[in-house]
Amino acid sequence: FTSRRSAELIKYAANAFLATKITFINEMADLCEKVGADVQDVSRGIGLDNRIGAKFLHAGPGYGGSCFPKDTLALLKTAEDHESPVRIVEAVVKVNDSRKRAMGRKVIEALGGLEEARGKRAALLGLTFKPNTDDMRDAPSIAIAQTLIDAGVEVAAYDPEGMEAAAALMPEVAMKASAYAAIEGADAVAIVTEWDAFRALDMERIKRIARAPVLVDLRNVYDPQEVRSHGIAYDSVGRP
After folding, report:
1. Which residues of 152-162 are buried (b: 16+ CB within 10 A; e: fewer)?
2. Rounded CA gap, 46 and 66, in Å?
């Protein structure tokens, strides 16, 4: 039992701390790509330290949903109102916002860069902010899709549960009836949400129906060597 003010701060601080862990490992993923390290090994290594713990150390396209964005902003507003800056949380919010568009640019690079990407087609697999929900609030897919559209890329997408909500948020995205319908004719395929349905994709079928065999795995679902053994170009987050 504690006071109301302490209880409110416990809630905000807990979610802000978890958001910080996610944002931290995402920045480590960027560094891993530059130095040739593997963020999954780094994540496992630091997670073995029980002062840190293994949870919320999975590199990806940034956090979304209802709690983390809302509570980090509420904590910032509380801090501002009381003239007590929380600069780490300020940085977390800023970095996470830019992270989502950076993942869109990662897909553009897989399409050959800005000049080559215009007029090409990308398939997004997963739209909700996490699996097993239809929640689209602050989902990374929104910024990723917009970044692609701004670059002149045609976007098709499939999500097992979130397409009805997503359609209202991204009217320029073609919603498809299945993962393979979205992949057909695509110049790059991006896994945005790690639904179980996307963990066992038929790589030979992807190679056959996509215009170009390119997979951008923003959730590090697949083993790089396994995907490349099928003749598919593969890129992921924070892995060499």
Report:
1. ebbbbbbbbbb
2. 28
**Which residue in 67, 102, 165, 197 is the catalytic one?**
67
**Is 67 designated active site?**
yes
Separation of first and last alpha carbons in the chain: 48
Alpha carbon distance 198, 194 (integer Å): 7
pLDDT tens-place values along the chain, 240 residues long: 999 999 999 999 999 999 999 999 999 999 999 999 999 999 999 999 999 999 999 999 999 998 999 999 999 999 999 999 999 999 999 999 999 999 999 999 999 999 999 999 999 999 999 999 999 999 999 999 999 999 999 999 999 999 999 999 999 999 999 999 999 999 999 999 999 999 999 999 999 999 999 999 999 999 999 999 999 999 999 998
